[in-house]
Automatic annotation (TrEMBL):
Name this protein carries in UniProt: Casein kinase II subunit beta
Classification of source organism: Eukaryota, Fungi, Dikarya, Ascomycota, Saccharomycotina
Function: Regulatory subunit of casein kinase II/CK2. As part of the kinase complex regulates the basal catalytic activity of the alpha subunit a constitutively active serine/threonine-protein kinase that phosphorylates a large number of substrates containing acidic residues C-terminal to the phosphorylated serine or threonine.
GO-annotated cellular components: CURI complex; cytoplasm; nucleoplasm; protein kinase CK2 complex; small-subunit processome; UTP-C complex
Subunit description: Tetramer of two alpha and two beta subunits.
Keywords per UniProt: Kinase, Transferase
Composition skew (Polar residues), residue ranges: 21-45
Protein family membership: Belongs to the casein kinase 2 subunit beta family.
Region (Disordered): 19-49
Amino acid sequence: MSYINQNLSQMEATQHKAASVSATVDQQTHASDMMISDSTGTSSNGDEENQDERWIAVFLNKPGNQIFVEIDEQYLTDRFNLVGLNKYFDEKMSTMLRYMTDDENFLKSEYPRMNNHEIERLERNCAKFYGMIHARYILTYQGQYDMMTLYREFIFGKCPRTACESHPLLPLGLYDVPDKDTFKLYCPMCEDVYLPKYIAQSCNDFDAHNGSKLNDYKRFQDRFGYEVEEHLVHRDSELKDGENLDSEGDDLNIINQVYRFNTEIDGCYFGSTFPHFFLLQYPRVITDKQKPKQRYVPRVYDIDLNYNSMILRYQELKRLQLEEKIQKEVDPKLINKKGVFNNKTYLNDLFM
């Protein structure tokens, strides 16, 4: 019996030891899993931070630069797309590209040796370089698609003309070479050009801005890098729940400060071709039903001013003739139809 009891005690000791070893292994495995998950989470957060710190991301997040789209890095580094741009810069294109694409070797070796003046010049040249490449990129299929996204969100503003009914605008450059003129805004409806400083940008991202609390102001002001005014901070702390800051129009003043274009952006960053090429790519953006059919005619005591009314009627005649010509090119059945060209009664009514 003593022999059997001794064997049983040895077996129990062996099982207890095995259980303790298994528990230790499980603890180590769990700890290693925790370390792996923590390291994975840290690396993912680090990747997100690195994405936000990229030169292109920083450039696009600057106030006023929301009218630019992000250029694909493959397009940016393709030398074929950069032909003819080197004559506008005193900096090497290779240096600017390495800085814009966050090349590690450049940032570790060459960049630390640059002084403040050289860094400022590099930043200025890179911004100009990006803008000139941007004018070419937005003529590609992907670039047109990206601009369509901004167009639908009214990022470029709305036409101030009454007959256009707040139709979205498109950016336009009157010149394709830098340092000639700033960018303008083109309306596909009235086919006219407007100055950006008189156009307010869209507030679609912040629909609740009118009468919202201060944290809503902080939310969209942080996006564009504007600081919240101190007197508004004090006033908000004194308000009761449910009240807002629009008693004196302060909220609208902030919105006017934030949603303004950077009017110093060069027009060549969009070019003279873009809006018209965009409308060829997306012809359904504007239809004939949307085209304004009425034109304002100056009147004095309900009598048309002769000189101005004749000019407007002549322009209207040319528009109708052009529309008729286009329709006949599309539909051959209309060729023999008597239209504006031969309608003497219409011409007499138009100019009498």
